[in-house]
């Protein structure tokens, strides 16, 4: 699996966790530190976390909220 494929897989898994474990909906969000902890609990190491968050934002699945948290977009919620 290439780095890009792994990053995509991690980003999709993060969205799944945000919706099904953290019970977030479109427009809900978490700060980057909390998202990092969610990823860490599920085996995504610190070195892969920022690329995962960046990828999810680049795809339009997450967006930066006013308070600095990363929020799930409609597109991101629909992936789950």
From TrEMBL:
It comes from the Bacteria. This is ArsR family transcriptional regulator.
């Amino acid at each position: 699996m290439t780095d890009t494929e792994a990053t995509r897989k991690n980003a999709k898994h993060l969205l799944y966790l945000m919706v099904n474990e953290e019970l977030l909906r479109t427009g809900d969000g978490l700060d980057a530190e909390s998202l990092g902890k969610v990823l860490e609990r599920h085996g995504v190491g610190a070195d892969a976390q920022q690329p995962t968050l960046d990828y999810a934002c680049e795809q339009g699945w997450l967006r930066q909220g006013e308070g600095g948290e990363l929020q799930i977009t409609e597109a991101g919620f629909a992936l789950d």
